[in-house]
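User: Hi! I'm a student and our assignment asks us to look at how structure tokens line up with a sequence. Could you show me two examples?

Assistant: Happy to help. In each example below, the sequence comes first and the structure tokens follow. Example one:
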Amino acid sequence: MLRNVSKVHVLVSFAFIFVVLGAVYIYSVHDVPYFSLCQPCDANPEPEVNDLTDALKVAEIKVCPNNRWKITELKMQNGLKYAQPSTQQGRTDVNSVTNWNAPLVWEGTFDPVVIDAIYKKMDPRVAVVVFAVGKYTRFLKGFLETGEKYFLVDFRVTYYIFTDNEQDVPKIQLGKGRKISVVNIPSATRWQEVVLGRMKWATITIEKRIRAEADYLFMMDIDSVFHNRFGAESLSQLSAVLHRGYYKNTKRDGFPYERRPKSKAYIPIGEGDYYYTAAVWGGYLEDMYKLVKYCYTQSEEDSKNNIEAVWQEESHLNKYLLYNKPTKVLSPEYLWSDYDKVPADIKLVRISQLVKNYAEVRPNGGQ
């Protein structure tokens, strides 16, 4: 059985494949434009290969999650001019590292010139998932127009707009390498259904579509606008944003975690790091898929037990991130709210949620 060649992915017109001591050798009479080796995984189980004919049948391009885009060597071009970094000066009014040694990102803790030079060479395909259901389509124009001005400028970005009103999606002038992709979903009668449905429809669409089109994924709330740079400093394997209401002096027992043991989102008193918002979070595509699916399946389990987590998917998100630490934590600069005064430690607001009449825009009057 030629099992060792079952994960050779190669696009050729004609090829001979040899297996010698576990190694794979390919002789082709034409150029080989694509070649990769991938270990078996859930997304790409190893097929049965009994002879050379079977081996050639599985010689095709496939997406292997283990070989996806990742933050790798932090390379930049020669001759780049930027301010010299200091070991003695920096932000002293806020903490810029977690107790598990992950960066906690604030204005003044990174150089955008250096960050952009490094990450643009990596060239990730970024997906932004937003839901505009019912009257929330009114927020699309402001979100998209300001996103084009401030969000990962000059990176490849696809806005995946999940909506029940495709005709209300505005025509926006997009930058090079940026596009809008509409995903049609059913309407909802409760705003809680919209919130919980986000995890269901995002899970399904990642599996069927986004996985083949993106390397990195952000989940964002549509009722927001960008005000300043939201750049590559936000990227990591899994990035979470501190909730503006609980980032300063709130003790962990005061966080609005789910405290009922019956819920899958339950966090006991005495546990907790931070309280994260579910209005902005991001990470590698497969890591986000795992987290989004977790929130969906845990919500489904709660539903079977006739309970709904106090803050829906945000409660499940916080449970997951307590025991699966984010690799980068973003300050509340990365999601503020127009309802709140901006304090001195927030040097600039990058994106902010809009003031709105919940009773008017939500399907069940905000109840």
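Example two works the same way, sequence first and then tokens:
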Amino acid sequence: MSFFFVETKSLPQQKLYDEGRIVFPAVLLSSPSSNNITVNPSDLIEAIKDQKPWIDSILHQSGAIMFRGFNLTTASHFNDVVEAFGFHDLPYVGGISPRTNVVGRVFTANESPPDKKIPFHHEMAHVNEFPSKLFFFCEVEPSSGGETPIVLSHIVYQKMKDRYPDFVKELEEKGLIYTRVLGEDDDPSSPIGLGWKSTFLTQDKTVADQRAAKLGMKLEWQEDGTVKSIMGPIPAIKVDKNRKIWFNSMAAAYTGWKDDRNDPVKAVTFGDGTPLPADTIHDCLRILEEESVAIPWKNGDVLLLDNLAVLHARSSFQPPRRVLASLCK
């Protein structure tokens, strides 16, 4: 069945920017003419292929698109949707969070415990090879909580620059250094519990060193079997669509990179190694929360993010919840 998408401002959580010209996130439903017809996953895939230039323009403008009401029920359906866009796959090398491959290009999202909130971040902003696009899919909606809050990065940059111009200037000049201690194997109790074997997709330390170096990362092997990864100095501010963006994982690392091996306050510093000001980081967290949008998941939802334009987080939740993800170059 052929149909056209319709963009809607139908959810109370959506925000308006640029004098109402930008809706964040964009929400795409099937056209009204197909309301009385069941839209199957295969119809959605056909529509994506047929209307991809228009969808790309919406993503460019809004930074995020939610597809709702298309009767997607399985990881395989989601994989087919990802494939329909034609983006190249990005292997999860250099990431920090435990994930499990489900099918094809589909992985579980961060598997950290449900009572732990995952702070705002750009995916893999702590390395120099990161995805340009992210897909999320709700296979099982949470009984409560569990949203994936999102926020526009250029808005965060402007708010921080207005409030802390000296700090932002120093950040632009020095960049950031991210430091993390990795165990040999995965630690599912930790939100940053990916072991070095899974991080670099190898059991060979030499290969791990090589893959780390490709990402701009240095590894220091410890006598207890752990390894310290050091990334940076790396820019904390980038330019996207001719505007500066808050492209970093500073707040996430400073407040969330915590487990038996890691002290979050030491996880991220200015690029010269000097500490970050705690009060400024915590106020940044408040700005992120104030500007964010958190739409409750419904079964079958797909959320597409421009990883340069949008930071995302994860709210704590009451199980069950199963949200899957796919990373694209």
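Here is something you could point out in your write-up. The first strand starts at residue 5 and ends at 8.
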